[in-house]
Amino acid sequence: MTAPVRVRFAPSPTGTLHLGSARSALYNWLFARHAGAEGTYVLRIEDTDAARSTPENVEQALRVFRWLGLDWDEGPGVEGPHAPYFQSQRGDRYTAALDQLFASQDVYRCFCTKEELDAERAAAQAEKRPFVYSGRCRDLPVADAVARAEAGEAHVVRLRVPEGEVTVVHDVVVGDSEFENALLGDFVVARADGSPLYNFANVVDDAEMRITHVIRGNDHLSNTPRQVLLYRALGHDVPAFAHLPMVLGPDGAKLSKRRHHTSTVEQLALAGYAPEAVRNGLALVGWSKDGETTTMSTAELVEHFDLTRVKKSSAQMDYGILASINGDHLRAMEPVTWADGYAAWRDEWLPADDPHHEAARVVEPSVAARLVQEKCATWGEVPEYLGFLLEPFTMSEEASKRFAKTGDDGVRVLDHIIPVLEALPSFTLEALEAALRGAADDLELKPGKVFAPIRFAVTGRTIAPGLWESIHELGRDRSLERLRAGRERLVAAAAEAVEA
Length: 500
Ligand code: GLU
What we know:
By secondary structure, the chain is mostly helical. 48% of the residues lie in helices and 9% in strands. It contains 21 helices and 11 strands. The chain has helices at 19-34, 55-68, 91-103, 114-126, 142-150, 181-184, 198-208, 224-234, 265-270, 275-283, 298-304, 319-332, 335-348, 365-372, 382-386, 397-405, 407-423, 429-443, 447-459, 467-474, 476-499, and strands at 5-9, 39-43, 107-110, 156-159, 166-169, 177-180, 188-191, 213-217, 240-244, 247-248, 315-316. The strands form 5 sheets. A 3-stranded antiparallel beta sheet has the order 3-4-7. It has a two-stranded parallel sheet with strand order 1-2. The protein has a two-stranded antiparallel ribbon with strand order 5-6. The structure holds glutamic acid. Glutamic acid binds at residues 10-12, 46, 202, 216, 220.
């Protein structure tokens, strides 16, 4: 039996879910699901920054979490024992915690002005030592401080950090780190109006929500000693920490919108990735079951996920592996699952003004599955494959060039195949395959030479499903019509070439 674990993902909703954050969310979710009935995954929205945390941004973030399939046991829309799960609605908790710290004298009011702090900072710089708040207001008599605050004097609230000690952060991934309290200084926990700063709200919530493991990016490691001090001051147990390696781009640089073509989950959803493949791909950015296995189902990830195998060093995104994992997942799906996923992508993510909008709807998703499930690495590739079914028929520039190059052989092939298809007793896939392969024997040409002109004439493009599948889907009349028109086109192109 595993011990109960309660983990959380605590995003600040800025609209898009960065792949690094998504990976943190995923590891929390996998860790909770690995613990089965003993595991709880909490989603808490850290929306204290009112300017960026708009309702639209929150909704957009929730939409992406839902898409990614990381269902939460407690959080927005799933009330639990520690509701509300929006920090903007938890002000009374922070006030109560701050009152507690005032009562125990673990915090004090600091009236230092910006000018005074700037001077301290400049002095530190001149002496080439890191700036740490001097603690000037530490020993102001409490009654005086209260009176000044009540008179409306600007101030902040600082934690009285124990002097002369070292704060140790135990971490499941990176091991122990030691931080000298003298270098942390008495840091600010709240503003004059009692509104909490990030470290304070985060600790109050994690303590109240009984979080056992804090799993997050290691860009937060420098906050952690301050948080440990806050847990102690509030009299709470300190949770276990697991700081995850940063997710980097393939070039080793910090993942960013500007540098990397895909930096958010939303972009993957738009490109037609399957949620389970994204879960699989992201799980491997910083963790591995055995150092080799790549394609895994979500059930396998849940079974094997373990914080002790999370890498310490930073983890690079490999978009090639992600795409190939996606292709594996798509091909392995039951056709009906594939079709549902494709329909969901098409209807929920493909923009209405996308040039592929019409091609994406030219056949039912179940037909698309039959035609291209084997061929496409993402659902985003599907419409391009289906474009040959659109009317009126058009030929792409590239196909047109390559079609013209088939020359006299091309005309011979079409002259041969048109009557063969006209006479075919039943227009089945098997009969078509046999007829097309038979044509290569009859004409004593390599299959490639025979299939190319037929493919260009029938599909008008370089990207299409298999040849007999394409012809079968178009049906006899439309296929013959295109073959005949193609033959004319080829003859005309040859005549033009002679004239030129
Ligand atoms: N709101 C913080 C963030 O988005 C949460 C950090 C944490 O997980 O403690 O970075």
